Structures
1.
Amino acid sequence: NGAGTVQTDLITLTRFILQEQQKVGPKATGELTLLLNALQFAFKFIAHTIRRAELVNLIGLAGVQNATGDDQKKLDVIGDEIFINAMKASGNVKLLVSEEQEDLIVFESSNGNYAVVCDPIDGSSNLDAGVSVGTIFGVYRLLPGSSGTIKDVLRSGTEMVSAGYTMYGASAHLMLTTGHGVNGFTLDTHLGEFILTYPDLRIPHSRAIYSVNEGNSFYWSDEIKAYLASLKEPQSNGKPYSARYIGSMVADVHRTLLYGGIFGYPGDSKSKNGKLRVLYECFPMAFLLEQAGGLAVNDRGEQISHIVPKQIHERSGIWLGSKGEIEKLLTFIKP
Ligand code: AHM
Ligand code: MG
């Protein structure tokens, strides 16, 4: 501890990832460390850009559509560019999948051994109202002997070596896993550093909070309807569950990780596979949740990280959260 209330021995993200690298020992190449460093630069740049967006009049439609036909905001375009440039410059990334790009991006001049999948600004429909949005990312190591093809990213979530998100809220929070638990960092804007604020984060085993867009309930399966109805009945403490839905996956997952509960975006009769994308929304969040002691499943109750996507923009219904809450859901949808 430092003098008075000033903490003088801060664990920055850079210090943390160097320590993690040292734990791996002499066989660590340092490549992932450099890649995580490039990622943190992209997060800081996006955080900074979002903060001043209103002032510099970036808010509003850019007049173009992304790969899947959504209206793209100016900030979506800028976030995407920031991310692509940071990954390209890192020298460690060979392939990039972005929600905003229809095709896989191959960095021809890179000799990097990694593929990164990302949603640069998720939840952007919330941006104009100043609601939290975030960047979601996952990292694969290229398959042995590969020089970078689509096969390197059409792999199960269990093969990711790192994943996480940054939420741009009251502060920017980065939640990170490299497969050894989850650690959370908060951006100190004055220092320009992410500081370790949630070491070895564990999700509570259960919590009576559900987070789902109930506007779609007409289209849900009978099992999902029955599950949600059961949450609205008084529970053993005499109270029903609380509903919390921000409509920004990163913010809804962030609350779920910290408080516990369940978040879902199921498939329904209108959209068979729901809305969220397997590679860069479901997998990274599933990896984080599992590493924090929670669970993530699809609509059939199968572990979502075991899916092998056939296309880079594939979607899947998803349920994630506290172990106790997912187990309760599974009694309704039985895998
Ligand atoms: P986006 O990638 O186009 O921003 O859409 C993803 C977002 C998620 O952040 C959020 O969980 C979901 O869409 C909300 O969808 P809905 O408005 O249908 O509830
Ligand atoms: Mg998204």
2.
Amino acid sequence: MFVGLQVAHCCKKETIEDRYTRVMGNRYHAGGKIVVVGSSNTDLVVRLSRLPRPGETLLGGKFATVAGGKGANQAVAARRAGGRVSFIGRVGRDEFGERALFDLARERIDVRGVSRDHSTPSGVALIMVSARGDNIIAVSSGANGRLTAAQIVRARKIFSGAAVVLLQLEIPMPAVCIAARLAREAGARVILNPAPAIPMSRALLKNVSILTPNESEAELLTGIRVTHEASAARAARRLHEQGVGTVIITLGSRGAYVSSVSMCERVAANAVKAVDTTAAGDVFNGVLAVALAEDRSLRDAVHYANAAAALSVTRRGAQSSAPSHAAIRRFMIRGRKRS
Ligand code: ADP
């Protein structure tokens, strides 16, 4: 067992969920509530001089355990940026699941919507990285893959009062669809980050307020190769035709192309020296949700998300690279825009 998961308190064991309630009480943040529905994984990373060939055993690697999963990454990014965040997901009754819950609760994310699976292990990714930066990744979705529509319905109270609900596609599609529907019924704005990109029904897309693919996801969803602003605009139009009101295509170091009723333009990225772009998209989405929950305009929200994501690429890691509210503000005052 990982230490500190159940805290002895007044002679009775305190669960992580109880602890969240005790620590957070009724404290509110600047913006409305954000609900993230998605995956949480544990990444088991071995760094080696080179990648082993099939059947080969290589000694001498350095090992690290890193919290991951797009849902959890985006929840942490939103929380660090000052959002009031609830997470809905599923983990196994194993040490990885305990640890994932503990890490989220430590960030002061409400984890009361996370269910536990008795028969399926938590999601893990086995990652090998060579000195040249090449990698091999094997993912077992585990309990993430068993998040059902019924469990989302059971957690429906969490959507009540939410300003923004943030979704990705690393959990089963029925769970994504019902979450989008319940979110809309609760009056929340729905951001869907379609990663990994898989075909989506019109019924789902009609409940999505903002779709946020990156370039390759936009290409997979539309068949249009996104290489510059004109092709981004074409891909966004194709997605509007499928029923989405606002499309934001993230363009890596070139920022993000925004297509909505009020604006159709690229918002330039901030000029930084990129060290590690892992989870840049997750930081972008988490911080976009915070800015919209604070009632900022779409343009301001994208500027803010661009700044946070640029800052994250100057740091190593996924969740570890998500910047704080104060760091984003400081960076926005000092930062430079690319052309
Ligand atoms: P993903 O990580 O999903 O592939 P992108 O690569 O499009 O997504 O990056 C998401 C966002 O991160 C971009 O819209 C931009 O704001 C920021 N970003 C990514 N790479 C850089 C970079 N090299 N310099 C500045 N900002 C970056």
